[in-house]
Amino acid sequence: MRFLGSFSIIKYHRKQFTRHFSAMANPLIAVCQMTSTSDKEKNLRTVRELTEKAKSRLACMAFFPEACDYLADNKKDIVAMAEPLDGSTVTSYKEIAKANNIWLSLGGLHEALTDNGNRISNTHIVINSTGEIVGTYRKMHLFDMDNKTTGVRLMESDYVLPGQKIERPITAPCGKLALSICYDMRFPELSLSLRNMGAEILTYPSAFTYQTGAAHWEILLRARAIETQCYVVAAAQTGAHNKKRVSWGHAMIIDPWGAVVAQCSEKSDIALTEIDLDHLRQIRENMPCESHRRTDLYPKMEPL
């Protein structure tokens, strides 16, 4: 009888737990952190494992960093390993999304271009829970650094063609989602244009270098959240990828007030938070910056 009583209590608490999460008013999202290498199969396993973890924690969407497909240490391999969006890697991402009934943000991926064999596109895609690509953005601002003092040389323009279009936000389970990639965060004109287009959530999947990340990562992300009054989701690469490259990490989610509401530790992992669009609307109503902009004196940020 004592055993049956205990079993009934367990069933009761399980029912209450399920009822609590099924009645959750706000969608839950997961920001992911990983350490990509040139091993595409290993990277794919990490994406699958983190997606399954996000789903087990009841997230409706998981956000992955730039170069979640691979991170090679030389230009030749970077270009040679690239695939089109109908290639095997994206096909696997679609299967992962569908199998877990979850949306995925993946980017930027190394996209092979049929009309250019020497350069690729750095492309951010969103896949819905039925395995369809519902959003695509090609990185506009390319990261070029040749710092003789630190010895860091990363010239993205050597092998990447810049995107030529700001993509409109897409309607996702967590809100109106705007797509950007990493270095884009340094240009507030883009984030303000996306806000003008209706964005509620800005995304910056990244592979930030350790030196710049230590100095600027959180500051820039919080600034983009505050000035646009949007949530900011920044998935990140972390740790040593090869002998040439180390990433800063600190994947995080920031609310429209500029508060860091979720952050990963120094390993492959996920961090979760609710997206509260009522909170967002209240912030915008209480501080109506958009209605105060002096667009009579300076131009409104319009999409290209």
Would you mind describing this structure in some detail?
Keywords: Hydrolase. Residues 27-277 form the CN hydrolase domain. InterPro entries: C-N_Hydrolase, C-N_Hydrolase_sf, Nit1/2_C-N_Hydrolase, UPF0012_CS. The protein has eight helices and 16 strands. With 304 residues, the protein is an alpha/beta fold. Strands 1, 2, 3, 4, 5, 12, 13 and 16 form an eight-stranded mixed sheet that branches. β12 (236-240) and β13 form a beta hairpin. The model is unreliable at 1-23 (pLDDT under 50).
Defining traits:
8-stranded mixed beta sheet; alpha/beta; hydrolase; CN hydrolase domain-containing protein; 304 residues; Nit1/2_C-N_Hydrolase; C-N_Hydrolase
Give a quick precis of the structure.
The protein is an alpha/beta fold and 304 residues long. It is built from eight helices and 16 strands. The strands form three sheets. Strands 1, 2, 3, 4, 5, 12, 13 and 16 form an eight-stranded mixed sheet that branches.
End-to-end separation in angstroms reads: 71 Å
Task: Find the structural class using helix and strand composition.
Answer: alpha/beta
Series of secondary-structure elements, N-terminal to C-terminal:
HEHEHHEEEEEEEHEHEEEEEEHH
Let me know the average pLDDT.
Answer: 92
Weakly predicted, low-confidence segments:
1-23
User: Percent of residues in helical segments?
Assistant: 25-40%
Globular, elongated, flat, extended or rod-shaped: what is the shape? globular
Q: What's the Cα radius of gyration?
A: 20 Å
Q: How much strand?
A: 25-35%
Number of helical elements: 8
- By DSSP, the count of extended strands is 16
Largest sheet, in brief, is:
8 strands, mixed
Organism: Xylocopa violacea (Violet carpenter bee)
Protein name: CN hydrolase domain-containing protein
Keywords: Hydrolase
Pfam families: CN_hydrolase
